[in-house]
Write a structure and sequence with these properties.
Strand content: 15-25%
Radius of gyration: 18 Å
Bound molecules: 2-acetamido-2-deoxy-beta-D-glucopyranose
Order of helices and strands: HHHHEEHEHEHEEHEEEH
Mean pLDDT: 81
Low-confidence stretches: 1-54, 95-99
Number of domains: 1
Length: 265
């Protein structure tokens, strides 16, 4: 009983540590061109998952057995990936066939991946983005969820480097990496991944659903020519249901390895 309790506390502490990493952290470390986050008082740090937990839905913790047996459908730069409709198991397809697969909201997509030490895909480089766009094209998929998220929740307003958020406030929640400003082609990329067109006819992100009924478009999906715009990034309200691509999460794999030394992942 006592041992179990200690274990539970350790798990909770490690999980809290993972979740307390914030957008911009990796970017700050690598490029050193942002205001260092350690100039801010520790207690102002908020996990990027705050908005979701406010709605009563929490991020899932990794499950060692599922991590060890996670689908490794393809590999890119040392990470495993899989597409939800191509894999059996709870949370994946319900019926075989491209047009019949199960669709879930953005947080459910992340959680299905996270239980397997993965997370919804994050395209930090143009090469990785091209790989995902090619997959969508080859499979003629209409859309997928990614881990992209707008920092529009508690803790974000204190981060001056994230404002205005429609330009500077987007990050990959898989790796807590900031995206390039949304209003121009990312440095070093050949093309702007954000769509030039959406519901309002203007460039993405446009938070269009907010104008209709105050539902923020806080999550990033890749849409395939829905607006006659080719395969492009769109800001989308997070409740919409889509299939998803999972990518290995280094943080979750390290965490499970650390707590299960003999596990083979
Ligand atoms: C691709 O998907 C679109 C939309 O679902 C459909 O209209 C089109 O016929 C499909 N193309 C092929 C080659 O399957
Ligand atoms: C907001 O509008 C969209 C688009 O018309 C609709 O799909 C969605 O259900 C609406 N949401 C609410 C909360 O009314």
């Amino acid at each position: 009983m006592r041992l179990l309790l200690v274990f539970a506390v350790v798990v909770a502490a490690a999980a809290a540590q993972i979740n307390q990493r914030r957008p911009g952290q990796t970017n700050n470390r690598v490029h050193n061109n942002q205001r260092p986050h350690n100039q801010q008082p520790q207690n102002q740090q908020q996990p990027p998952q705050k908005a979701d937990s406010q709605k009563g839905t929490l991020l899932s913790l990794p499950e060692p057995q599922l991590c060890a047996s996670r689908p490794k459908q393809w590999n890119f730069n040392g990470h495993n990936y899989f597409f939800s409709w191509d894999n059996e198991g709870e949370g994946f397809y319900e019926l075989a066939g491209e047009t019949q697969g199960r669709k879930v909201n953005w947080l459910e997509a992340r959680n299905e991946c996270r239980r397997r030490c993965m997370d919804a895909v994050s395209m930090e480089t143009e090469a990785e983005n091209n790989m995902i766009f090619q997959f969508i094209q080859d499979r003629n998929l209409s859309y997928i969820w990614t881990s992209g998220r707008l920092c529009d929740f508690t803790g974000c307003s204190e981060r001056k480097d994230l404002h205005p958020i429609n330009i500077y406030g987007w990050f990959w929640s898989n790796t807590n990496t900031k995206m390039a400003p949304t209003n121009s082609t990312p440095p070093g990329w050949a093309a702007q991944p954000w769509s030039p067109a959406g519901h309002t006819g203007g460039p993405q992100p446009d938070n269009a659903e907010y104008d209709i009924n105050q539902t923020s478009e806080s999550c990033l999906g890749v849409l395939n020519n829905i607006y006659k715009d080719g395969i492009k990034w769109h800001d989308i309200a997070c409740y919409h249901k889509k299939p998803f691509v999972c990518e290995d999460s280094d943080a979750l794999l390290d965490y499970v390895k650390g707590t299960n030394p003999t596990i083979i992942l």
